[in-house]
Amino acid sequence: MELFEREIDSTANLLPKDGTVNYYGKIFSLEEADYYYQLLLSEIEWRNDEAIIFGKKILTKRKVAWYGDIPFEYTYSNATKTALPWTENLLVLKKIAEQTTGETYNSCLLNLYHSGDEGMAWHSDAEKDLKKHGAIGSMSFGAERKFAFKHKKTQEKVELILEHGSLLVMKNETQDFWLHRLPPTKKFFKERVNLTFRTIVE
């Protein structure tokens, strides 16, 4: 058990080059993080994610939800989603993300991972709907999981643990040069809710 919270420099760039990733650590108290965790599990309209692979529809165990300022359409993995209107609590969390990072966002893709078995393969968030080089704010609640970056050319890797109630931001050229993933693990973990605040360009 750590007697003192370690100091986190949110201005430090975790990437050695070709992009910017800032980790703010825990931005909520444990009580606040627990509160939002339970709230998100119960009030979000979770759906199994869909992907079209070789013309065949695949449903993932992982569940997702898509919210935004207006009914934005967002296409990834050859499947299109239409944004639901914000809930009051999502707007509160969006405002906290914006005030903390100094960025603005108009939408949020949420992911629900039920256990350590569920993860996300290497990918970049570079869909044409997204603002190019825009910031993506990643807020985590629940199970603490490893998150990894890999440079597309050099294969350099950067890894960190995303804590309960924490915030990470990816911006600038990060998606051009780096892949990221949430590796699955055999360890038993409770559910994890991840909110990725982003900007859609119409």
TrEMBL record:
Transmembrane segments: none annotated. Its cofactor is Fe(2+). It holds the Pfam family 2OG-FeII_Oxy_2. GO terms for biological process: DNA alkylation repair. InterPro entries: AlkB-like, AlkB-like_sf, ALKBH3, Oxoglu/Fe-dep_dioxygenase_dom. PANTHER family: ALPHA-KETOGLUTARATE-DEPENDENT DIOXYGENASE ALKB HOMOLOG 3 (PTHR31212). This is Alpha-ketoglutarate-dependent dioxygenase AlkB. It comes from Elizabethkingia bruuniana.
